[in-house]
Amino acid sequence: MARIIRIAAAQVGAIHRKDTRRDTLSRLIRLLEDAVSKGAQVVLFPECTFTTFFPRHLFTDEAELDSFFEHGDITTADTTHGIFDKAKELGVDMCIGFAEATDDDEHYNACVYYHAKMGSILSKYRKIHLPGDVEPFPEPDAVNQLEKRYFKPGNLGFKAFRVPDLTDATADSGEPIFGMMICNDRRWAESWRCLGLQGVEVVLTGYNTPGWAPQMWGSSGDQDPKEAREEAIFHHKLVMKAHSYTNACFSVSAARCGLDDGKYDLVGGSTIIGPNGKIIAESKTEEDEIIIADCDLDLCSPGKKRTFDFGRHRRVEHYSILTSQTGVIEPPRLSKISSKSEVRNRDVHITGFTPIKSVSGTAITKTIRILLCNPNATEFMTNACLEMLKPTLPADVSVYGFTAPKPAPSAIEGNFDNIMSAAAAARAIVPIANGYDAFLVACYSDHALIKMLREELNQPIIGIMEASLLAARTLGGRFGIIATSRRSKFTLEDSVKHYGLDSFCAGVKDCDLGVLELESKPEKEVLAIMGDVGKKLVEDGADVLTLGCAGMTSMKAAIEEAVGADVQVVDGVMAGVHHLAGLCRMGMKMAKKGMYQSSAAQRKIRAQDWY
Ligand code: CDT
After folding, report:
1. How far apart are CA 418 and CA 177, in angstroms?
2. CA–CA dist 559, 480 (Å, integer)
3. Per-residue pLDDT at 395
4. Which parts of the chain span the membrane according to its record (predicted)?
């Protein structure tokens, strides 16, 4: 069954500063009625629809500035409820932009999607890319865009949402997926991709785009106003078409346009564009006008499933620069002449004060790929480690989860498990090792896999026990280890001695639990036992506790609560990843002169390279 929605954009012509809100609201309601008479199910209105586009003015009178903002619930407020009531009465959904003043006196350039059948707001968006300036241009006749002065950048992200009741549900697809952005957001590929990554099918964008405004556009004051307007519309359509295509979605844009106050021009060019990037409907005037089109959402599928099948084609390991850097950092110049910014950045010496020298990093160019090697065959433990790591990772570090294949045992509780799991894991890891910069062995022990990999590979390798103890030595005077089973207490005590750290160890105490019982027993019970063990270790002098099993990773917060803020709790998985990332940044490799020489060549000579 086709998923077709009839969508309209209500383009709104000039709104002058002296126009009353009542008259403007009546115009908007007339447009809504007009769209519904043409069969619209959804109507998009422009950015800041209820008044003239006030951010072009500098206000000295606070009360006057405040009069352009909407306060309280927009669906019931005196100045705005009329259009929401009408939408409900007509059964038409509506997206409308407005200047929002919140109860705690924050100000946003916002829009809402109002769902007629529910009679309430389904989704709200606050403009993220605020254009323009805080201060007006010095030229008295310049056209200003003081959005940075009057609004805070939006804090709701680019959130796609499902809209019920527009199309029949099908087995293949759920309710239509909509997303909203406001004016300047549409020029940023980032806005679209955030929505695209949520499967957006229709993007709604209201806008106020000036035509001739040379200071604002940074163009020549000599430019012919007609040319300037054509160029503004060209750029508007360019981004709407390009991003509809690259995200395989429909887009609808509604202009606030015309000549406000006989002086400030805003361009028209409202459009409805298909997922192939072609315009389906566009406005012909710069006045109040409805454009409308039937949008068959199934037309998004070819793009989403082939050319822009994000899951198959995106290569996020090369995109970290997108979220770690805002401004441009050019490659260093090849010529000797210093650029202006290099001259500016040289240390400034203030008389009588020796500046503190500082250095900071440049652009991140290469992602550090760490393979988290779980030598047991229990995948949920690997996944739990990745989940816990995620919020701690900088953009240039990616951690990949490896779970040992059988015959690795599902838990490592003794020497037999240790050796069997090391062999199974090493066989699988060595052939793929080239793809990673470092390896973390996620078993809290002096696991055999650590030394196997240290011999065979050049990249840095550490186990979570050793990593946790290195961190513990840095952070405190005595550490205590919360172990799982009785037996692991003894092996961990031996390992502490092996690492030469027994004089810093306040104790190893076990919870009398099997590794898999950490998951299978009721969480409350496990946390209570671990909390008690942690407290006993602290009584014995530990000021840092380490979690003696990769399966304890998710329990860190509960132990911290049990022992209080003066005691540090180290998770070896987290400590290991960040330790390795540091070594990678330093460009370090395994030393091959001594005990970690590879025996691969000798095996080969013996014709024993069969593993
Ligand atoms: N309202 C709004 O965001 N207008 C901007 C003006 C350009 S800022 C250089 C726009 O992107 O159309």
Report:
1. 49
2. 13
3. 84
4. none
Look up 305 and say whether it is catalytic: no
Amino acid at 117: K
Query: Which residue is associated with the tokens 């991003």?
Result: 243
Report the nearest atom of ligand 1 relative to the CA of 55.
Answer: 1
521 is catalytic: no
pLDDT digits (tens, 9 = 90+) for 405-455: 989 999 888 899 999 999 999 999 998 999 999 999 999 999 999 999 999
Pair type for strands 93-101 and 42-44: parallel
Find the catalytic residue in 70, 86, 95, 127: 127
Distance CA(7)–CA(178), nearest Å, equals 12
- Exposed (0-12), middle (13-18) or buried (19+): which is 151, by Cβ within 10 Å? buried
Is 50 exceeded by the pLDDT of residue 280?
Answer: yes
Closest-CA residue to 189 (of 281, 45, 322, 9): 322
Q: Enter the tokens of residue 213.
A: 């405004």
pLDDT the model gives residue 396:
86
Instruction: Write down the catalytic residue from 95, 183, 373, 505.
Output: 183
Q: State the closest ligand 1 atom to the C-alpha of 130, by its place in the atom list counted from 1.
A: 3
Q: In this model, does residue 350 exceed pLDDT 50?
A: no
Spatial distance between the Cα atoms of 153 and 165, rounded to a whole number of angstroms:
32
Question: Which residues are CB-neighbours of 291 under 8 A, at least 6 positions away?
Answer: 8, 9, 11, 270, 271, 272, 281, 282, 283
d(CA 228, CA 216): 12
| Total-model pTM | 0.61
Mapping DSSP to helix (H, G, I), strand (E, B) and coil, where does residue 104 land?
A: coil
Mean pLDDT of 215-238: 93
- 562's tokens: 């049990």
Instruction: Examine the pLDDT at 351 and tell me if it is beyond 70.
Output: no
DSSP 3-state of 547: strand
Could you report the per-residue pLDDT of 85-97, keeping only the tens digit for each? 999 999 999 999 9
- Between CA 111 and CA 128 the distance in angstroms is 12
**Ligand 1 centroid to residue 116 C-alpha, Å:** 30
**Ligand 1 center–CA 69 separation, angstroms:** 19
Catalytic (active site) residue 47: yes
Model confidence at 192: pLDDT above 90: yes
Q: 470: number of CA atoms within 13 Å, CB side?
A: 15
Around ligand 1, the residues with Cβ closer than 6 Å are 47, 131-132, 145, 183-184, 187, 207-209, 216
Is the pLDDT score of 348 beyond 50? no
- The least confident of 77-81, 196-200, 450-454, 515-519 is 515-519
Written in H, E and C, the secondary structure of 231-272 is HHHHHHHHHHHHHHHHCCCEEEEEEECEEECCCEEECCCCEE
Q: What is the mean pLDDT of the chain?
A: 92
Angstrom distance (rounded) from CA 483 to CA 591: 31
Q: How far apart are CA 459 and CA 360, in angstroms?
A: 26
Rounded to the nearest angstrom, the distance between the alpha carbon of 220 and the centre of ligand 1 is 17
Q: How much distance in Å is there from the Cα of 45 to the middle of ligand 1?
A: 16
3 state SS of 439 = strand
DSSP lists the bridge partners of residue 282 as: 271
Which tokens is 76 given? 């019931």
Give all domains of the chain, ordered by start, each with its CATH number.
Answer: 4-313 (3.60.110.10), 368-593 (3.40.50.12500)
Q: Which atom of ligand 1 is nearest to the CA of 182?
A: 3
- Say whether the peptide bond before residue 407 is cis (omega within 30 degrees of 0): yes
